[in-house]
């Protein structure tokens, strides 16, 4: 249960970091400055520094594969369900990790979850364009 609790935090943290990097990039922010600000702030950790570097540099060489993260995510979700617990953030992370695997990034680093976020952004734009 301890490992699962730690993995829940890791999975949601890295997914949130990927979304924040996507947000920053799409708003035209200087990504090196974004990295410096996050790395110097109170939320910085060795994991956030390592994964943010991957996101900024678009380097998805594997440290923890998205396939392994998806598997761990499933283990945490199953344990939550067995205990009668809701896991809303984990559930969204599970969906995004699954989408990342479907996109062909199963062997990429978990930071590649940003690709699923980017795909959702493209779909949002396509839907908006189709409506106009």
Helix count?
6
Distance between the termini: 49 Å
Work out the radius of gyration: 15 Å
Helix percent band: over 70%
Runs in which pLDDT lies below 50 for 5 or more consecutive residues are: none
Q: What is the element string, with H for helices and E for strands?
A: HHHHHH
Q: How would you describe the overall organization of this protein?
A:
The protein contains 6 helices and no strands. The protein is mostly helical and 132 residues long. The longest helix is centred in the N-terminal third of the chain and has 25 residues, at 2-26. The radius of gyration is 15 Å and the shape is globular. The protein starts with a helix and ends with a helix.
In short:
Helices cover 76% and strands 0% of the residues. It is mostly helical and 132 residues long.
Which features does this protein show?
0% strand, 132 residues
Which secondary structure elements does this structure contain, and how are they paired or packed?
Blueprint: H1 2-26, H2 31-40, H3 46-57, H4 66-82, H5 88-105, H6 114-131
Helix pairs in contact: 1-3, 1-4, 1-5, 2-3, 4-5, 5-6
């Amino acid at each position: 249960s301890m490992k699962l609790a730690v993995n829940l935090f890791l999975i949601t943290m890295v997914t949130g970091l990927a979304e924040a990097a996507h947000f920053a990039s799409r708003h035209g922010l200087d990504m090196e400055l974004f990295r410096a600000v996050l790395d110097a702030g109170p939320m910085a950790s060795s994991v956030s520094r390592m994964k943010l570097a991957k996101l900024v540099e678009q380097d998805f060489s594997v440290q923890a594969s998205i396939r392994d993260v998806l598997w761990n995510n499933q283990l945490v979700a199953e344990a939550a369900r067995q205990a009668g617990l809701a896991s809303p953030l984990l559930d969204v992370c599970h969906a995004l990790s699954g989408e990342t695997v479907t996109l062909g990034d199963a062997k990429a680093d978990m930071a590649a979850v940003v690709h699923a976020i980017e795909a959702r952004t493209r779909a949002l734009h396509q839907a908006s364009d189709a409506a106009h």
